[in-house]
Amino acid sequence: MAAIDLLAKRARLVGAGLAGDVPSPCISICKLDSATEFCEGCFRTLDEIAAWGRMDDESKRAVWQLIAERLGQKTA
Q: Which of 11, 56, 64, 70 could in theory staple to 43 by disulfide, Cβ–Cβ 3.0 to 4.6 A?
């Protein structure tokens, strides 16, 4: 549960523009949930993970926003 809390905190920082460079959400827990098709560690899709290195900061922030929404749905 601590990993989810850390990811949620980082999502809030990125969303508030307080993260400077947009960090990767990867926390080295790489396992795909077959039901949601999200990584259980970073809550990204495989497409988002594959594209991350080519994304500009605006696109990365958009993915962080999606992660925050997914985390909200998971804890609701």
A: 70
Q: pLDDT digit string (tens) for 13-68? A: 887 766 568 999 999 999 999 999 999 999 999 999 999 999 999 999 999 999 99
Residue 39 in contact with residue 30, Cβ under 8 Å?
A: yes
- Rounded to whole angstroms, how far apart are CA atoms 76 and 59? 26
Domain containing 41: what range? 2-75
Q: What is the DSSP letter of 32?
A: B
Domains held by the chain: number: 1
Q: Where are the beta strands (DSSP E) in the chain?
A: none
The more confident residue out of 43 and 4 is 43
CA distance 69 to 18: 18
63's tokens: 């993915």
